[in-house]
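Problem 3 from the worked examples.
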Amino acid sequence: MNGQTPGSPALNGITPVQQMISSCSGALLTSLLVTPLDVVKTRLQAQNNPLGKGKYFVYCNGLMDHICVCENGRGWYKAAGQFKGTFDAFYKIVCCEGITALWSGLPPTLAMAVPATVIYFTCYDQLCAALRARMGERSQEAPLLAGAIARVGSATVISPLELIRTKLQSQKQSYGELTSLIRSVVQAEGWWSLWRGLGPTLLRDVPFSAMYWYNYERGKNWLCQWYNTREPTFTITFISGAGSGSIAAIVTLPFDVVKTRRQVELGELQAKNLSGPVSSSTFSIMKKIVAHDGFRGLFAGFFPRLIKVAPACAIMISSYEFGKAFFRKHNQERILPQVHSTNT
């Protein structure tokens, strides 16, 4: 017998459903731990540069960037507050607004961030295993290709949902009104109108994912050799995730600067009409930034992006790998008695 039984795991000792559960739990944990960092960052930015009513800002829950509308000069929070710095902001928000204020704005964004993460991580694992089996001597490059394809798939699925969420949040429309509006826009402009703004998102996220997974797999393998272990530990995956996430974040930062600017503009545009031209192409915006601020302008927000992306990547991948290891061990313990009884 080959040790396989009907319904036994087919990929790396675990099933696709178990991969989905692992990525879902990792996504929730990442959001819970990383969201307070972005809440404080957003509050500090709003204090220095107050937003007018109806303006948009980018909010991140550790998994995805989301467009949020500013109401009455504020975002989703109730009190303005005056903060002297990061730690002072943490302290005053908890004391004056309660500890739950550190997770303000999280529930609405999880509705898309968790499914997107589940699609992304599960597709990556499935694609990477399939590509490695077919690429032979070039199997080390499989994570590069699998990461890029998986990101394209998840971003394409989620893009129309983000548009719908932005519209619901900005104009407080019912689902019936929104359905009628979207149907009329699709009839007038075609289905492609639901994916407006996807291009700039892919320009940043696809290179990020390709570099992230390639460096993560290489770093993980190197650390396993360094510590002389066959299976990566939680520490190894955490360090590999943080390191690869940092490298990818730095390299793709210019695209992030452009994408954020276009995303805010596009969010305001979609909230009004779900239609209309965007001011410039990605590279045209880059030229304007360089002309106005120099090349340093393309790397604006370097440190805030780094301290947000590195822990998010580390927490997500280490918790995901921990979940897979748990299910793999569970499956082995369940299958071994069946194999033993079959052989006897």
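Problem 4, a separate protein:
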Amino acid sequence: MKPNFSLRLRIFNLNCWGIPYLSKHRGDRVKRLGDFLNMESFDLALLEEVWSEQDFQYLRQKLLPTYPAAHYFRSGVIGSGLCVFSKHPIQEFTQHVYTLNGYPYMIHHGDWFCGKAVGLLVLHLSGLVLNAYVTHLHAEYNRQKDIYLAHRVAQAWELAQFIHHTSKKADVVLLCGDLNLHPKDLGCRLLKEWTGLHDAYLETRDFKGSEEGCTMVPENCYVNQRELQPFPFGIRIDYVLYKAVSGFYISCKTLRTTTGRDPHSGTPLSDHEALMATLCVRHSPPQHTPSPTHGPAERSRLISVLKEAWAELDLGMAQARWWATFAGYVIGLGLLLLALLCALAAGGGVREVAIMLWTPSVGLLLGAGAVYLFHVQEAKGLSRARAELQHMLGRAREAHDLDPESQAALFLGQQEGDRSEEQ
């Protein structure tokens, strides 16, 4: 690889809102998306919420001349909704399905049936290894009373761990997707602090698009306006995140978003806004060598966010255990009720009544059993993530305590304290 090596990458990301039978104008929007991607000829297009595999196959055929490589990530009952289209050959791909993803009895939300996941592509570009990740985390349905917060934090941690463990041989790491997290939300801060990924919107000096980089805006006719009432400019929940390892330097030259309408026809491509980033990768000169990801200041922020995440998962685990215990009591009562009904039916006194109550009692017992098993599994998933966080928190604290700069700062602080006491 030449010392003056330079590579430009044009990236496209969009949550397509492609729910069969429910999403408005889905067919027309998918067709126009294909036309737009062919016209723009990005290096990589990463899409979420392509729930219909027929839509993927349509796009696959339409984009084949421009994007010869493509993959659809399959998981769950409905599917992950994730797919990618690439101008460059895909060397490897894999995926990780999140352990926790909502509740099966919240049918009207549907996240549990989707199999939310993170997909990974490995590309070799002029000798450079690029790991590209695409993901979609659990939706936030009520910001004031968010019953899925612990699940989303656990997903953010799993995502961060997956990136951490699969990107050791990569020169450049790229993550795109709908995180369903505001920039200052716990899950977003945890992901950034642990992986060291940079936010294209915050890093670029050339941004054009929606106000404050929002990816759900009131101007979009498909957006639920009531949900955006607390946010006059909209919300930013879709991201392009990236980093380069030592020896390389990556920057975001330009970042564009749509603004509630298609750039050409005027009608939106989705209820989300598209992100279009131009990234530049080059060899890192000495003056541009990135500073250590976990210096004293960074380590302090990491410790703080790990503690926050641990506390949130602890609350979620307590809630899951409460529901499991409640379901256990219902199972016990159900078994007693069935035993009583069996005794009544055998005695013949109120046999007809006992038989009538048998079916709902069995249904109650089976339902309580399913709830018990699910919440036991949920508690174990949260406990696993909490244990990982606790271990990493301990390691981060040890490193922070052993850091020479931290020790010097502590010593200076103690000296100042002694002086003030003497005075």
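Solution to problem 4. Confidence is low (pLDDT under 50) at residues 407-423. The longest strand covers residues 6-18.
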